[in-house]
Amino acid sequence: MTTATPARTSSVPARTTLAALTGLEARLLVREWAPMLFAFVFPPMMMLVLAGVFANDGGAAYGGADATDYYIAAYLGVPLAALALMGLPTALAGYRERGVLRRFEASGLSLTAVVCAQALVTAGLIVLAAGLVLAVAAPVYGLPELHDPVGVALGFALGTAAMLSLGVVLGLLARTARSAQALGLLVFLPMWLLGGGGPPPSVMTDVMQQIAGALPMTHVTDVVRDAWLGTGEIGRPLALTAVWLVVGLVLCAWLLRRRPDRV
């Protein structure tokens, strides 16, 4: 009897702890409002500008799609990258800077649980921010016809997981919230410009196309955009996104073993 009771209840705290941490993280988002505001305002604003500026373009340069539809679909990936690469690392590094990670450890909470909670909250914000892009685009330009909803959902989910894992890596590497925000911005900007938020790849130089092809956001954007517009096969970018997810998870596991909460 004395050994059976802990066995029945030991799995409950693990689930409730993650749920409680996730709720706590959601309530504390206002403390790191700057990257969150950027992630919610910048993507729809730039989508409106680019979709309007290039409204009369289209054809081969945009994979056979209308330029407005091209940018509406492509900009679903921009808030994903902004929140994963700026919001999440800033929050995680801020915890490290203020000694919150040490206090969590002292109370018996694992760093992995804290990271998972922040990733879950960020994933929810990513869905909201992507929905905002579509909500802003709908009354102004209308939404393009959705060709492959399963492909869009799969690409968005896999891309979110991949970018979140990379965001955790940035957050564990940075020592302060300010350095994490700066590092995240430096990583985000080239991904945004070359990974789908800027000019189409066909107008880039060969060197820029090669750089773009090495960026994870390029593959995430390709999957979502091509599945939505029906402008290409999504097998290869899906596979490359999965590769980036594995890379991110491996780096996360390695960094968590180094116990950054004690640095």
Any chance you could write out the topology, listing elements then pairs?
Blueprint: H1 4-9, H2 11-27, H3 33-53, E1 58-59, E2 65-66, H4 67-74, H5 77-97, H6 100-106, H7 111-141, H8 149-173, H9 177-197, H10 206-213, H11 216-229, H12 235-257
Antiparallel strand pairs: 1-2
Helix pairs in contact: 2-7, 3-4, 3-5, 3-7, 4-11, 5-7, 5-8, 5-9, 7-8, 8-9, 8-11, 8-12, 9-10, 9-11, 11-12
| Overall number of strands | 2
Q: Report the span from N to C terminus.
A: 42 Å
Q: Could you give the order of strands across the largest sheet? A: 1-2
Structural shape: elongated
Biggest sheet, open or closed, and with what strands and sense? 2 strands, antiparallel
- Put simply, the count of helices is 12
Classify the helix fraction into a percent range. Answer: over 70%
State the secondary-structure class: mainly alpha
Helix and strand succession? HHHEEHHHHHHHHH
Radius of gyration: 20 Å
- The low-confidence parts are 1-14
Strand content: under 5%
Question: Mean pLDDT score, rounded?
Answer: 85
* Overall domain count: 1
